[in-house]
User: What shape does this take?
Amino acid sequence: MRSKLYDAYREAASAARQVDGTLPASAAPGRARDYISLGSRQQPVLLLSCASPAAFKRPPINLQHLTVEFGIRFRVRAPTGIVEDDFVVVSLRGDDLELAEAFCLAADALMSALPEAPSASDIESAVREFIEVLSALSLPSSRAVAGVWAELWLMSVASDPQSAVTAWHRDPTERFDFSFASHFVEVKATEREERNHDFSYEQLRRSEAPVSVASLRLRRAQGGKSVTDLLATLQEGLSAELRMKLVKNVFGAIGSAVAEASEIRFDEGFAESNLRVIAADRVPVVVIPDGSPISAVRFRVNLDDSSLSADLLKPLVHRALMTP
Assistant: This one.
């Protein structure tokens, strides 16, 4: 599944050009007065209506991937006819077309937080957040695509995706990937044959609540799902705050590799059949003697089925993020 706004952009991009030069546009899904149109190099251009456009004049903002202009008169041809109005115009840079889908995913989340007739302050707040999100795409990737995909996929198949997204870490340096009220979940993913994962001693033994380890083996597949597919699926039905949290977390983790991540697809069926949920206190650890000056240890553990007794395995996909 792709972003609905990205589909609307693709629809506008496929529309026939008019002899009068009017740019094609599609209505933004779920919005009565906002549109997605095209720039000079076919890049997506978001047109946001404002309740008081005449009073909303600001200097333009020019960033690495983004341009924002305020109170700009725009004339476009929408499916319902010619539309001419003053808009806040948020444009992806023309040489960044590979980021079009990411731009639309972020814009989807941005618009979900806007009222139907947003004020200048509503627009200003949303644009600031949008700039923050898109700025992450200028940074190097901080995490492997497989790890981000695994966490998104588990949330997408969870029995309560909203609770799962709420529990998802905001900071990748947090000890656990998911922090629920009564338990924690740490997600490990690998594309290798062996189910080898790195842990810290603190993750497995020093926790005030029960901890589960969700271990996945992943396999790339042309017909599988990408990170952006899962992100678009998860956004459906979430609050505006959680939708923005999703986008921020994913873009912050993947950074400048987001276009590449959109092309990497993993087989959901293979992931489901190769998911194992293991109680952290049953995973072998390196023993730190009492009174030892050692305060932190990281180690690699083989969690292949052959190395675990049957009672340690819970291959139940919908329960992976539930209380142990």
Notes: Confidence is low (pLDDT under 50) at residues 311-315. Residues 145-319 form one domain. The CA atoms of residues 201 and 297 lie 6 Å apart. The radius of gyration is 23 Å.
